Amino acid sequence: MPRVSDEHLERRRRQILDAARICFVRKGFHQTSMQDVFTESGLSAGAVYRYFKSKDELVIALASTAAGDIRAQMTAVIHSDPLPTPAELIARMTDWIETQSGPEGRIRLAPQAWSLALIDDEAAAPVRRTMASIREMWREYAERMRTAGWLPPDADVEAVAAALFGLLPGYVLQHLLLGDLVRDQYLRGVDTLFPYGGPETRRTWSTTGSAPGTDQA
To answer: Which residue ranges does UniProt annotate as crossing the membrane (predicted)?
Structure first.
């Protein structure tokens, strides 16, 4: 019997995950059955169970895949030169988010995963790992902000990361649930709150002893 290639196995795994994602977006985690996944994927129960033994395993795999995608996007932005301002960083990330938030988009799974993590310990583990990894990306960004002089030398980058962390989930929730969020308006708000990087805010903590954009008496 010919050996199945790794490429074929990965393609089949992706086929199952894509089907599960569509089902979860359409019906929610709790309302989706494994039979729904079989039907959407066009595969038999045996074929699906070869890769995933349960719905929880599908949730975990989808959460892990999403975390990898978000990390890749944020890594590229955070390590850009020159350092992007918070508004520029959010602009690039929300641009990507909007490409993933259509009727069957992956971002629509995020609020469902967050709520599931509150009541299901097994599902909570990958969600917590995802959240922790994203907060770590914000910490790296905060360190770069401090190095650039946008934060005081003694700034608590962990605290800054925790505060900045809410910007993207906040955008996702307003975009998906309220439906009236204007992206440019959101970015103006971020730029107003974090006015770093412009010609008038290039002064640094190390040389002025004051916040960027402020004048000393």
So the answer is: none
pTM value? 0.78
d(CA 34, CA 55): 7
pLDDT (tens place) for every residue of the chain, 217 residues total: 456 688 888 999 999 999 999 999 888 888 999 999 999 999 999 999 999 998 888 887 887 777 778 888 888 999 999 999 999 999 999 998 888 888 878 888 888 888 888 888 887 888 888 889 899 999 999 999 999 999 999 999 999 999 999 999 999 999 988 988 899 999 999 999 998 875 544 444 444 445 554 444 3
Closest alpha carbon to 174 in 117, 90, 118: 90
CB 180 within 8 A of CB 102: no
As a whole number of angstroms, the distance between CA 200 and CA 195 comes to: 9
